[in-house]
Q: What sequence folds into this?
């Protein structure tokens, strides 16, 4: 759903984007007892951040070494995105990424999550690159969706479920 909204916003604003935003969806699977996370980030913004962070000149659309690109994307996302559930920081596994038009989807999975009372989301993806970066976070748990908007000096937030 957020991919559609992301694309519509781009359509109405034209091909370039005069703003810096990412959308993150966190969904709990009660059957698998996992948190499945997907980030949608503008490709050109991510490319800029990767080149600054790793002092390189990557071309995300046409990488010379796709495996190295995936490794750097995973390293970057895992270093800039953390989750603490019920007071315990979780270790995520980067599952991969894919390009969809001008957006990059990045996928992370967190295992052994049975129940969520509260979730702290730390998301400073692209904060070091763009002063106006906003990261929207949607958490879906037991049929309920709650959201955070992280921007400026606010790179973390807490969501509680009853």
A:
């Amino acid at each position: 759903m957020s991919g559609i909204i992301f694309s519509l916003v781009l359509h109405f604003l034209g091909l370039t984007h005069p703003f810096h935003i990412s959308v993150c969806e966190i969904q709990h699977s009660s059957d698998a007892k996992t948190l499945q996370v997907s980030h949608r980030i503008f490709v050109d913004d991510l490319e800029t951040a990767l080149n600054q962070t790793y002092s390189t000149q990557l071309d995300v659309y046409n990488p010379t070494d796709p495996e190295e690109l995936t490794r750097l994307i995973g390293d970057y996302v895992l270093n800039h995105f953390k989750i603490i559930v019920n007071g315990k920081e979780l270790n995520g596994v980067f599952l991969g990424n894919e390009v969809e038009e001008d957006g990059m989807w990045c996928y992370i999975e967190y295992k052994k999550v049975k129940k969520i009372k509260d979730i702290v989301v730390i998301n400073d993806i692209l904060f070091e690159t763009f002063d106006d970066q906003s990261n929207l976070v949607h958490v879906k748990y037991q049929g309920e969706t709650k959201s955070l908007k992280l921007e400026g000096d606010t790179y973390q937030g807490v969501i509680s479920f009853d």
About this structure: Residues 66-80 form the longest helix (15 residues). The chain is about 25% helix and 45% strand.
